[in-house]
Amino acid sequence: MFSLVNSAILWQYGAMDDIVYPRLSVTVSVFTSFDHTHPFKPAAAQLSQGPDGTDEFGMGLWVLTRKANESGVYPQAPSGRRVLPTSLVRADESLVDTARRLIKDDLGIEVKYKLRQNRIFDEITPGEDARVISLSFWAFVHIDALAPLLGGKDQVGLELVSSSDFLRRSPAAEQLSRFDGVSRFGRRVALNQPEAHFKHLSEELWGTKILEANFDDMVFYAWRDMRYGFTDRFDPFRFLGTEVLDKEFRLTDLRELYQVVRGQDIQSDQFRRMATGNSSFLKAVGSVDTSGSRPGKPAALYSWK
Fold first, then answer.
1. What is the pTM of this model?
2. Is the CB of residue 23 less than 8 Å from the CB of residue 133?
3. Which of 2, 56, 80, 254 is most deeply packed, by most CB within 10 A?
4. What is the tally of structural domains in the chain?
């Protein structure tokens, strides 16, 4: 009888009795967010927003991409689009170990974060000898930790998931209430609509994929998971295990972050009641914003409790 390690090696790399076994890979979607006025905003060459992007995108939610991965992690020949960080699982690794290796060794990220497993992607491509079963993980990392890691030989960059500007100009802009979340990687019809739960994914929305292989779907479902941390039942700071804004921020900044993560419009008075009510996870710091980045009266600043 084969040991579990031997079985994993056969599954990963080899064949027995001329049967070709699938390879096992792990993919990580690393999300971050920042306003277009943020001092650590990456260079324009490191940001991709699609053909209608703008320098003044407001608040943005982004996912980390790079030029290429190691060979053998794709079910078919790559087309040249950008990719999510992916690696085959080594014989002496657990799935979580592979995800952590990608984040720490391949990307150089060493700050605190929560790693969450999303789903299994098991695509069978007719006519292809290779088959890859991929498990998707995701994490959120503050832009201050990510910005110094962009560029380099792997051309690490950020792909826009959603932004204040995108929500204003997207095909669904005039009917956001019809959807339970809108992003560049897909949208889902709201529960109160005739086509409740029906999904429109990136290729249907734009006529082409944004990223290589099935990475668009991985981003979409990871984003759907992340949205749960931005409902009135959760503290996003604790849910994500890291700071989601700077240490002190305006309530407007937090509302705009909620909007782009949820892909929905949130009324300011409704949000204020939710964010500052009896169960609030915020505290007023007793000072106001003096940056001058917003017109009007300086806004009060808040921090996490």
1. 0.90
2. yes
3. 254
4. 1
